[in-house]
Amino acid sequence: MDLDRIDREILLAVQADGRITNASLADSVGLSETPCARRLRRLEADGFIEGYRATLSRRALDLGLMAFTQIRFGMHDRELTDRFEREVQGIPRIVACHNVAGTADYMLTVVARDLDDYGAFVRDVIRTLPGVTSVESILSLREVKRHGGLPLL
Predict the structure, then answer these.
(1) Which regions of 5-53 does DSSP assign to beta strands (E)?
(2) What SS3 state is found at 40?
(3) DSSP assignment of 63-88
(4) Is the pTM higher than 0.90?
(5) Are residues 32 and 76 in the same domain?
(6) N or C: the chain end with fewer CB closer than 10 Å?
(7) Are residues 75 and 107 in the same domain?
(8) Are 31 and 69 members of one domain?
(9) pLDDT tens string for the chain (153 positions)?
(10) Is 31:23 a contact under the CB 8 Å cutoff?
(11) What SS3 class is residue 132?
(12) Whole-angstrom Cα distance, residue 33 to residue 58?
């Protein structure tokens, strides 16, 4: 499906503010409310909008440490990687998981209260996940950009 200028403006607006009212959205893109609501429903139905969510504060939740954790496997077995991926889904501290190319097999984004908390999590949880033979951590010193949204190319 081709997106026209108004569809793109709608997507940018709801990406910036998922709680924007239909009236404000319609006004910002230059439509009346009914056609705007119709377009928004179509963009949702066509899969351009996957959902809406709130952005929580790591600081307020006392999750001051963010780590990028590279995981390596000793052997590459489909059943093992499937088990690893299933288990990762159920661990809330792992906020993102990517199967990557390069020296690592997976890149995790992990949050923790502090370095001691993260160390215990690596020892007690990450190292016990199926297939994991090597763990390398990269600690975030400062978050420069967060949830910038997807570009509409």
Answers:
(1) none
(2) helix
(3) --EEEEEEEEESS--HHHHHHHHHHH
(4) no
(5) no
(6) C
(7) yes
(8) no
(9) 789 999 999 999 999 999 999 999 999 999 999 999 999 999 999 999 999 998 899 999 999 999 999 999 998 889 999 999 999 999 999 999 999 999 999 999 999 999 999 999 999 999 999 999 999 999 999 999 887 788 887
(10) no
(11) strand
(12) 36
How many independent structural domains does the chain possess? 2
* Type and span of the H or E element at 98: strand 94-99
- In a shared domain, residues 40 and 80: no
Question: Long-range contacts of range 115-123, CB-CB < 8 Å, 24 or more positions apart?
Answer: 115/65, 115/139, 117/65, 118/65, 118/67, 121/93, 122/69
pLDDT at 150: 83
Give the domain range for residue 27.
Answer: 5-45
Burial of 148 (C-beta count, 10 Å sphere; 0-12/13-18/19+) = exposed
Of 91, 88, 85, 95, which is closest to residue 65 (Cα–Cα)?
A: 95
Q: Does one domain contain both 95 and 128?
A: yes
CA–CA distance, 128 with 92 (Å, rounded to integer): 16
Cα–Cα dist 34/8, whole Å: 18
